[in-house]
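To illustrate the input format used throughout this study, we show a single complete record. The first block contains the structure-token representation of the backbone; no residue identities are included at this stage. The design step must infer an amino acid for every position from geometry alone.
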């Protein structure tokens, strides 16, 4: 039987994509995953607006459109602790966003919220770490009360590029509402090898972003099709599966859109091509999608 796009991967893994990497508007985001034969989106922005900042009418309309299309929401990528919010900034922004997302995630049918661990704001390492842990402890407490799981990404923040600090967050805070999101390509972009980090944190990984990159001549990462860069995507996928990972693989190409730089825009054709490339890589690594 020929392989059919969007079917289950080994151990129940499913494929999704961060919608605004495909297009700004939700209709085109849904259309891109539908073209791939998938039925999941990770939501970050709709029409350029983060999910928590949509007005109520716009959010309700988005939720209805998703429901009508039969498109599930794998996770919401929040701004909590991200590159725009240093640890010296107003914590109320994050607490308020979490409150809004607790209500909206219940409507969207997802429990998973992507967070980061704050830029330093000029503080030294010790004070930076103390404040980041304090904030994430409070966020995790509130998330647990509201039935959410915060997935800390290896990106910007105190624990963004160090496995020991990620483990310190998860084990030190000790909440089931704080786990890890592993972005395979972020290591290349931030200057560390991804596979050794994944080996250390894999028991706590609940969500994965698939991204690949090569180190550019100017020090900036050049993002490329999965399996063609330096992020050891195939090896990371094997490691995840060997360790029983059964979550979502969510594509974040960064080929047309660079959100942290505020450059580019989603490209449906590039997004679909990226998804097809991931399916081919999976077929090579695991013998096909069942």
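Output of the design step:
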């Amino acid at each position: 039987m020929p392989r059919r796009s969007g079917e289950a991967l080994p151990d129940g893994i499913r494929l999704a994509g961060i919608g605004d990497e495909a297009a700004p508007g939700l209709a085109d985001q849904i259309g891109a995953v539908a073209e791939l034969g998938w039925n999941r989106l990770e939501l970050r922005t709709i029409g350029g607006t983060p999910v928590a900042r949509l007005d109520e009418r716009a959010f309700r309309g988005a939720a209805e459109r998703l429901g009508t299309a039969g498109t599930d929401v794998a996770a919401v990528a929040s701004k909590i602790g991200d590159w725009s919010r240093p640890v010296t900034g107003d914590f109320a922004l994050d607490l308020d966003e979490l409150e809004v997302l607790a209500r909206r995630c219940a409507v969207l049918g997802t429990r998973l919220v992507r967070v980061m661990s704050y830029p330093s704001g000029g503080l030294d390492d010790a004070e930076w770490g103390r404040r980041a842990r304090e904030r994430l402890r409070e966020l995790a407490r509130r998330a647990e009360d509201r039935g959410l799981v915060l997935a800390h990404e290896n990106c910007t923040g105190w624990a963004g590029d160090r496995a020991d600090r990620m483990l310190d967050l998860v084990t030190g805070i000790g909440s089931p509402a704080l786990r890890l999101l592993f972005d395979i390509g972020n290591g290349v972009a931030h200057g560390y090898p991804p596979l050794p980090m994944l080996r250390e944190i894999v028991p706590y990984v609940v969500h994965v972003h698939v991204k690949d990159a090569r180190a550019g001549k100017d020090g900036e990462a050049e993002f490329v099709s999965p399996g063609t860069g330096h992020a050891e995507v195939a090896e990371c996928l094997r490691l995840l599966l060997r360790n029983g990972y059964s979550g979502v693989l969510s594509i974040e190409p960064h080929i047309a859109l660079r959100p942290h730089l505020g450059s580019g825009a989603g490209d449906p054709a590039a997004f679909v091509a990226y998804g097809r490339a991931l399916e081919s890589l999976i077929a090579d690594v695991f013998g096909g999608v069942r």
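Structural context for interpreting the output: The first helix runs from residue 26 to 35. The two ends are 10 Å apart (CA to CA).
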